[in-house]
Design brief:
Strand content: 35-45%
Number of strands: 6
Order of helices and strands: EEEEHEE
Mean pLDDT: 94
Distance between the termini: 34 Å
Strand order of the largest sheet: 1-4-3-2-6-5
Radius of gyration: 12 Å
Low-confidence stretches: none
Largest sheet: 6 strands, mixed
Structural class: mainly beta
Number of helices: 1
Length: 92
């Protein structure tokens, strides 16, 4: 079945972030729409608004390596006010 909502990518290195005012990536631990995996979802922090671009992995460390390879360098841990499935958010 093809996912009509999300555009899943194999690596965030292939994503064109040029149209985003403030590119961000949030890692989620088994969110409701992906209950069996970790998810890295691309956000436009200038909105703020979530995009439909996601990458999935069995663990957060795989996503972190890909996020770093895509050029993100600053990591913010989950705020107590955030949804419990949020692990952290990365920005350039």
């Amino acid at each position: 079945m093809i996912d009509q909502i999300n555009k899943q990518v194999e690596t965030l290195c292939d994503v064109d972030f040029s149209g985003l005012r403030l590119p961000m990536v949030t890692i989620y631990n088994k969110p409701r729409d992906f209950p069996d995996v970790y998810v890295a979802r691309v956000w436009d922090g200038g909105g703020p608004r979530a995009t439909n671009v996601v990458r999935t992995a069995p663990d957060a460390d795989s996503l972190r390596k890909d996020i770093l390879a895509a050029g993100f360098t600053i990591c913010f841990p989950r705020s107590p006010a955030d949804d419990a499935c949020i692990v952290e958010t990365w920005v350039w």
